[in-house]
Design a protein that fits this description.
The protein has 88 residues and is α+β, with helices and mostly antiparallel strands. The protein has one domain. 31% of the residues lie in helices and 11% in strands. A two-stranded antiparallel sheet has the order 1-2.
Length: 88
């Protein structure tokens, strides 16, 4: 089956998938907890090792379980001093 999607359509689809994968939606009303940092306090752990935690939806008032998955990435840079050393 040929892929007839334009680049814009592919980007739109990718963006939708990314947002869905990185959202934390209340299973009752669909409210996305990641839009409020104070909602995230209880559900962000160091490595996602805490298992399920109970969360309260500030939008609809119902309780539900959240299981966090952590995929941490880093970017490293040389210090300014070392970059100067490279020039010599
Ligand atoms: Zn809710």
């Amino acid at each position: 089956m040929p892929n007839t999607l334009t680049i814009d359509e592919r980007m739109e689809r990718w963006e939708k998938q990314y947002k869905e994968a990185h959202a934390c939606n209340c299973p009752h009303c669909g409210y996305d907890l990641t839009t409020e940092s104070e909602d995230m306090v209880n559900i962000v752990t160091y490595w996602g090792e805490d298992g399920r935690v109970e969360e309260h939806c500030n939008h609809c008032g119902k309780d539900f379980w959240v299981e966090e998955h952590v995929d941490r990435t880093w970017t490293t840079f040389k210090t300014e001093d070392e970059e100067e050393d490279d020039g010599f």
